[in-house]
Design a protein that fits this description.
CATH superfamily of the largest domain: Galactose-binding domain-like
Strand order of the largest sheet: 6-7-10-15-12-13-16
Helix content: under 10%
Number of strands: 25
Largest sheet: 7 strands, antiparallel
Structural class: mainly beta
Radius of gyration: 35 Å
Strand content: 35-45%
Mean pLDDT: 87
Order of helices and strands: EEHHEEEEEEEEHEEEEEEEHEEEEEEEE
Shape: elongated
Distance between the termini: 87 Å
CATH class of the largest domain: Mainly Beta
Number of helices: 4
């Protein structure tokens, strides 16, 4: 057989007796040596240019856009990394990689819609505060619910799962409810503003997968429940998770694979999404897990009765809610996190000094400018003003609070000095 290209060469040297029909066997003519070498060089060049394809390994020359054209519309997977048309640059060095998202959410930060998820901010005080009713704020952006005879405290703790976190929220059972009535419930919760959860597209056919991740440590092991709840749409989904070992930090990841396509979810500055960590609920608030439904349910019948266990504790930190799958916790600067929290609650204290002359009714007027615009016009309360002085609000907006101190007429100069504490709440 004539050896007319490199694929026809034989691995056994003795079998290669010609090249392009030129005899190269023993006793070949001297005049055939030059011609044989020239033919060999031609075969090698054809292989170099690609005009002669190799038998193995095979290779097909690729044009600029071949990576998409040579694969399915879903792209080509290389070591579990999928490359699609338009997501791999064409510049040789360095190769730019373009991505519009990370797991369908924002790329490079601003993934976590939970504020104060590592419990750095406690504007109301870090010491233990009793939760004996509903909507009891201690840590900023988180609140306790105790709708029954049991109570628990919340405080800032330095007990954390690792050095990534400085603080946690510690819940401690201070009054046991061993048999929770049907209409009672106990929970710890965070509310997320509608502006921040609008990206989830809940209440539409575009609803996205969302993942909650957090670190938890509890003195009572067992099955616990998380509830995703819309106040405006009256929709919920319950997820169960397991605390495997008592008094041990464990990371939990809970994914709502299918977003809620039903209901009118709030997308502006009201309550967009509430997340409950259930601590024990009566039958009225128990439902089925793993599916969206109408109503207000927080747990299943499998929920451990944490509130029914004397001196039980529950630690929480590293709370993150994001589109798609879980990513490492998104850390924000303490300055940024503080300003975020002050959109919902702000405390101010300082020294005020005034003077009233010769029997006239005294007025001292001031304007306080908030460090950030608040979510809505805040509710205002104050302390530290004593008789005969009184205080009144002139006007309050999302940006400022205008007020006055006053007292009745006196016969001489009367000074005023006080250190009032002002509290402004625009909580959800």
């Amino acid at each position: 057989m004539a050896k007319n290209n490199i694929t026809q060469y034989d691995a056994t040297a003795a079998n290669n007796t010609d090249i392009d029909s030129i005899n190269i066997a023993e006793g070949m003519a001297a005049s055939d040596v030059n011609n044989a070498i020239r033919s060999l060089m031609s075969h090698l060049k054809n292989m170099d240019t690609g005009s002669q394809a190799l038998t193995s390994p095979s290779f097909t020359a690729m044009s600029t856009d071949t990576i998409n054209e040579k694969t399915s519309t879903n792209g080509v997977a290389i070591d579990s990394v999928t490359l699609k048309d338009g997501e791999l640059g064409t510049t040789a060095s360095p190769v730019p990689i373009n991505s519009s998202s990370l797991n369908g959410g924002q790329f490079g930060g601003r993934r976590n819609v939970v504020l104060n998820g590592k419990f750095q901010i406690f504007q109301r005080g870090t010491s233990a505060t009793t939760v004996s009713g509903n909507d009891v704020f201690v840590a900023d952006r988180f609140k306790g619910w105790a709708n029954g005879g049991g109570t628990y405290t919340v405080e800032q703790s330095t007990d954390t799962p690792n050095n990534e976190f400085e603080f946690s929220a510690k819940l401690n059972n201070t009054a046991v409810d061993s048999s929770v009535s049907a209409g009672d419930f106990y929970a710890y919760a965070t509310d997320i503003e509608g502006h921040d959860v609008s990206q989830f597209a809940y209440g539409s056919s575009d609803a996205k997968s969302v993942t909650l991740s957090f670190w938890v440590k509890a003195s009572l092991a067992g099955t616990y429940c998380i509830a995703f709840y819309s106040v405006t749409a009256n929709r919920y989904q319950i997820k169960e998770y397991t605390i495997s070992s008592a008094n041990t930090w464990e990371k939990k990841t809970i994914t709502i694979a299918s977003g809620d396509t039903t209901g009118s979810w709030n997308r502006v500055n009201g309550n967009g999404l509430r997340i409950y960590w259930d601590l024990g609920s009566g039958s009225t608030y128990q439902g089925s897990p793993n599916a969206w439904a109408s109503g207000q349910k927080f747990s299943t019948t499998n929920q451990a009765n944490w509130i029914g266990t004397s001196s039980s504790n529950f630690y929480l930190t590293g709370v993150q809610v994001e589109i798609g799958l879980a990513t490492p916790f998104e850390h924000r600067s303490i300055h940024e996190e503080t300003l975020h929290c002050r959109r919902y609650y702000y405390e101010w204290s300082g020294l005020w000094i005034g003077l009233i002359n010769n029997g006239n009714t005294g007025l001292i007027r001031h304007q306080l400018v908030f460090p950030v615009e608040m979510r809505g016009t805040p509710a205002v309360s104050n302390a530290g003003i004593t008789s005969p002085w009184s205080i009144g609000t002139i006007a309050t907006t999302t940006k400022t609070h205008n007020f006055e101190f006053s007292r009745t007429a006196t016969a001489d100069f009367r000074p005023f000095m006080g250190s009032p504490v002002w509290k402004f709440s625009a909580e959800l």
